[in-house]
Amino acid sequence: MIKSFQPPQRVLMGPGPSDVSPRVLEAMSRPTIGHLDPEFIRMMDELKALLKQTFLTENELTMPVSAPGSAGMEACFVNLVEPGDKVIVCQNGVFGGRMKENVERFGGEVVLVSDEWGTPVSVDKVKAAFETHPDTKILAFVHAETSTGVRSDAKSLCAIAKEYDALTIVDAVTSLGGSELRMDEWGIDAIYSGSQKCLSCPPGISPVSFSEKAVEKVQSRESRTPSWFLDKKLVMGYWGGDGKRAYHHTAPVNSLYALHESLVILQEEGLENSWARHAKHHEALKAGLEAMGISFLVEEAYRLPQLNSVMIPEGVDDAAVRSALLSNFGLEIGAGLGALAGKVWRIGLMGAACNRRNVTLCLSALESTLAEMGAPIKTGQALVAAAAVYQG
Asked: Pfam families given for it (predicted)?
């Protein structure tokens, strides 16, 4: 007989999901009400306002998609890309590749700008691509590449697109709440994120926002949006406007309670304070790892504080270390993806998991595990180096 599932207690320091705040878990357990209940609609309005504060935007079409970040990505592309549209897609990791596939599936023409994994999107290459293809309709890039831990210069990239009157689609799945992100100031037209990273909410919700210019594109499409569920013209009847809402789908009521609570927590902390907290704990983790003799994949100027890709020491079994950390310490870190599989670990410092206790646990557990395996590391210095950052 199958019994109730009781998950183990873990410390989640991989690329996501991140640890969920007890307040958010409690919010999920509140009574379920109807998705057209007046109180739920009131909460929806608050949720939109909180998301606008988090994206730093005044966009009216700002809402959570009732599905994970991958659906947020698809919602942007399926609404904005029409057959024959030329789209410059920047790929410097796994998730740029997914953007490319979205454009192809919806009949767009891809102009690919490729950069080495672990390096940011080249502003110069994007300029050159626009010079060669001035009729480009959209520029798509990943702000925070989760597969490598690199941050690209969203402000400069959006400025180039604006020169050519092109829309921008930006992946902010890992950056929202953890790194500086200013949608309106930087001129981003469409953006998507995920609930499970720096927002410290369970997976399954994707916040998105569309500028007025992007909404105009959606409303003036010559072809019908090839997705019923993600068609923003239909969804706006449920998430848009005041007063009565038109039924579109049964929203994940309790998951939206959770997102609401996570955004309330972020509001209480202050968005810029959250950015600073992620940066501070990253510096401590970095000091400890480097004292151990472990180096980073990404140059310091372009690193994401919330996603640290570090090189696996020579001769060390990637999977064996991750398994030992999980078994002996209840600690999860992430493996490398694609070309970086077996070469890097991805250590997350996201949302509620971004704290001194977890930095200390990660450093001590990793040092202990590697030392037992005879890895070529320096011992006894990591925690001292991290403490010096906190004290300084």
From this structure: Aminotran_5
